[in-house]
Specification:
361 residues, globular, 18% strand, alpha/beta
Length: 361
Amino acid sequence: AVAYKYPPERKETQVLAIQVQVGRTGRLTPLALLKPTLIAGSTVSRATLHNEDYVREKDIRVGDTVIIEKAGDVIPAVVSVVLEKRPPEAEPFVMPSNCPVCGSPVRREENEAESRCTGVDCPAQLFRHILHFVSRDAMDIEGMGPALIQQLLEANLIASIADIYHLPERRADLLRLERMGQKSVDNLIAAIERSRENPLDRLINALGIRNVGREAARTLAAQYDSIDAIAAASLEELAALPDFGQITAKSVQQFFAETQTKELLEKLRNAGVRLQGASQPQQRGDELAGKTYVLTGTLPGMTREEAGALIIAHGGKVSGSVSKKTTAVIAGESAGSKLDKAIALGVPVLSEAELHDLVGE
């Protein structure tokens, strides 16, 4: 048997413009708008340019004559530029410094090829941001899944994360949505109302700060008593937090410095969402002073938040990651990689009952 693979057909065309699109994750992607050209059985009028580095490496400019092909006989791609046909006025491509959709600053992290919009309420990213905001580890708004979020956006019932908290006032509009009966609407409204009083760490996680996950959110909530206090923290203070460092600290500081972030937080405040943490647990002893614990898995008699509060109330600290400096790992059911790392490092592993024994409660 013999298989033949022929080289893809290539043709010349002209770059009429370079348009920058913003995806659901905030990634900015340059797109070449081409003079329509018939190639491999269809007319091609656009081709993705992937990222800023790709455009620079090939030196693609508006007005250039370029060679195009269909990668895999499917995806249009710019192969090269015909330099001898370049018009004298052609200028090098520059990635915009502000998002073309919402106007927020565009940031490209060191050692990354992707440029991203920093807007927390950018319309291009709104679906993804809301999906994360309402998720179980974030604000935990039960019943608000992808299908409902899409319906709410299409019906113009939400145009910002903060609009979630105005949905209880629009019960009649919710009832008109597909598969939303009275009980479903009542349950959704109840879940939204409950989420207004969520612990501070849930809100921090829900905001989707780059490099800040659930454990880092808990660290911030344990150190600061409000969103405003976190926003006012210096880079040095943030970098000194357990398991943080310069990269995470910089992400936090940059996030809260953005105009869109400030506007969103003010909307959430006006909507009655709690931006303060619960009062710090009253000190009940110093049995765990100078010791650091990591919580993992599902504990049988309390939540991990409650276990963390118990440790803090007895002078201990709670960390989000295991290291040689960790005193012990408190593990429950379905413990994952943290338990594995503790065993590998020889860090003691304790149960919830053993934690109670340590503090005498």
